[in-house]
Specification:
Layout: E1 6-8, E2 11-12, H1 18-29, E3 34-42, E4 47-54, H2 56-73, E5 89-96, H3 102-120, E6 124-128, H4 139-143, H5 146-153, E7 176-180, E8 185-191, H6 196-206, E9 216-223, E10 226-233, H7 241-254, E11 259-265, H8 275-280, H9 292-300
Parallel strand pairs: 5-7, 6-7
Antiparallel strand pairs: 1-4, 1-5, 2-4, 2-5, 3-4, 8-10, 8-11, 9-10
Amino acid sequence: MKTGVVECVPNFSEGKAPDVLRALEQAMRGVPGAHLLDIHSDPFHHRSVFTLAGAPDAVLEAAFSGARVARAEIDLRTHRGQHPRMGAADVIPFVPLEGATMEQCVDLAQRLGKRIGDELAVPVFLYGEAASRPERENLAQVRRGEFEGLSDAIGRDPAHAPDFGPHRIHATAGATAVGARGILVAFNVYLATPDMAIAKAVARAIRSSSGGLPGVRSLAFSVGGRAQVSTNLLDVDQTPPLRAYQAIAEEASKLGATTEHSEMVGLCPERALSAAGAKEMHLHDSWEAHLLEPHVRLAVD
């Protein structure tokens, strides 16, 4: 029976140590039926994003293998990076692709969450479409307080009771968010200024919660001495990367700043990215390298 193709995008709190990144890669590549499509590591955010696709059970097994390595190799007590984090295996979302359903992905999230909790003794919070309560649908709410704050809250505050695993934070691996969601595109724009006040104002202006672009979440970071506007595009049909870039450039211009270049973290649907758009956005590498569907076709056909 055809089970469809599922994508999984584990985010790990490690962006610097080659030996740890190599161990994570080898663990996930070693699972038959799961295909590692892309790896994006960033030393400033101290974070790596891996993109998997394949048969549902195989992808689950690969994600678990990565989480097991992360628990053994990453210590949140000494981790310092720009990106918010609460766990070594920080967030693991499942995404339905061709022939798969959101219901399948919710089931995968629940099964993986239970395994991480039971076998790795790491507390797990379900989020997105897999959330067990409405306030946990938004990942930012789940991760609020990060590793340090959740170290005090888990086991003491009933609102922070995990869905799976022990009711205490893991001393080194923290906690993990496992979820199910639709396609999300992570897209960053660097401003030609170190001024974080400008970046924060731009991020605030474009995010949907402030009345900006539909389906956009955004934050501002200082990355290598440059101000970065980091976005998650939750609906690329309403707000593709080019539209987000144009809005960022427009808001930055109002404050006397210009854009420098942009970067894609992971993969993007073909319909939302083009050669002309990549040129206008000053995408820092090959736009074709970020197309989701060709990667999937090459891997699973």
